[in-house]
Amino acid sequence: MFEYSLDATLTQWLDEHAEAMDQQPGYAAEVLQQMAPHGLFELGLCERLGGRPDSSFQDALTALIAVAKHSLNAAFILWAQRGVIALLAQQPDHPLTQTLLPLLLSGRVAGAPGLSNLIKFGSGLEPLQVSAQRFQSGWELNGQLPWVSNAQQENFIVALAAQTEEKQAGIFLLPDKADGVVRKPDLSLYSIQSSATTTIRLEQVRVSDEHHFAPCAFSFMRSFRPLFLAQQCALSIGVGLASAQRVRQHDKQPTGFAQQARQLEEQLIHIGQQLVQGVEQQTWIESPKGLFELRLQLATLCTQSAMLELKTEGGAAYVKGQREPTRRRVREAMLLPLITPTVAQLNQ
Q1: 260 touches 308 (CB < 8 A)
Q2: Residues 225-277 pLDDT 10s
Q3: Distance CA 61, CA 100 (A)
Q4: Which is more confident, 127 or 348?
Q5: For residue 192, how far is the Cα from the chain centroid?
Q6: Which of 213, 149, 204, 208 is nearest to 182 (CA)?
Q7: What per-residue confidence (pLDDT) applies to 91?
Q8: Which residues pair with 130 in a beta bridge?
Q9: How far apart are CA 278 and CA 166, in angstroms?
Q10: Buried b (16+ CB within 10 A) or exposed e, 159-188
Q11: Rounded CA separation 333/348 (Å)
């Protein structure tokens, strides 16, 4: 079966806190501490880097799906943490990988991927918003990252791209404690209010050469992007499956809705299997367009599934205090097409 079995204590915690995380800040650090003991950050990572033995990328993807079925906010944090872990794993012998990976796997440090600007830049949608200038013993960075998730109040590492010279960009990893790293207050968001999503300003941040993780951001992202975006797609699959399963289990299920829900489930799972196959066979490195097409399909399927759940619940979904999970999943489904790369950007 294309699924991952979460520990019962973790699922109970996720269910108990899903509505609060949707609407209130303050749970982001606890999410990391809840997930780390269950090895969710270690899935699909090779053993010599601290990965779980005999685990695969499919395990990592299905674990993300399983968490998203209970809470998009928690899954969003898991995706961000795993994104920075996957980035470090691309260069296993780099000094930063050796230093940071154990801290990220244990949840003691939060991984904040500030890479949306690079993804947009690579598609010609906006210029890079961070510059890096060489000085005698390292680099000075200036600029702004308008949207960074899992940037906890303290103890986070942010991954970003910065322009190093004309038509050239590098990947940098910056600790939150570096002088000049200014974390703004959390953004006010629907669905992921406890995801520690914020704006980060870089004001004359000086770091050593060690923090210049990859000199060519574009070639680096070519191999990293499939892992990053495929796991992002898991968020839509999880929310869509949760809505479809709620429809099939409803005690007052309208005629035909169960069949629609089953069809949506099958389509969502099939795309999940395509994602895994594409990553394992490195299809998305040579043909990223196929991955983007799956992202677009998932946005549609997830929205259809949430709307089907809403129709199944009927008027009760609009009574305050009732059907809170249904309304939360509708909000989650509305947010997912807006995550970079957005559906609008992919359609350009």
Answers
A1: yes
A2: 999 999 999 999 999 999 999 999 987 777 789 999 999 999 999 999 999 99
A3: 22
A4: 127
A5: 11
A6: 204
A7: 96
A8: 143
A9: 33
A10: bbbbbbeeeebbbbbbbbeeeebebeebbe
A11: 21
- Cα angle: 98, vertex 101, 106; to 5 degrees: 135
Instruction: Say which DSSP state 195 is in.
Output: S
Per-residue model confidence as pLDDT tens digits over 93-113: 999 999 999 999 999 999 999
Is the per-residue pLDDT at 125 higher than 80? Answer: no
In the block, residue with structure tokens 């010599």: 48
Instruction: Give me 214's structure tokens.
Output: 């990859």
Quote helix, strand, coil % in the chain, to nearest 5: 55, 15, 30
Task: Say how far apart CA 10 and CA 30 lie, in whole Å.
Answer: 12
User: Closest by alpha carbon to 275, among 291, 299, 287, 288?
Assistant: 291
**What sign has the CA pseudo-torsion 92, 95, 97, 98?**
positive
Number of residues in the chain? 348
- What is the Cα–Cα distance from 36 to 163, expressed in whole angstroms? 34
Do the beta carbons of residue 194 and residue 210 sit within 8 Å? no
Residue 205's SS3 state is strand
Determine if the peptide bond prior to 341 is cis (ω within 30°). Answer: yes
Amino acid present at 314: G
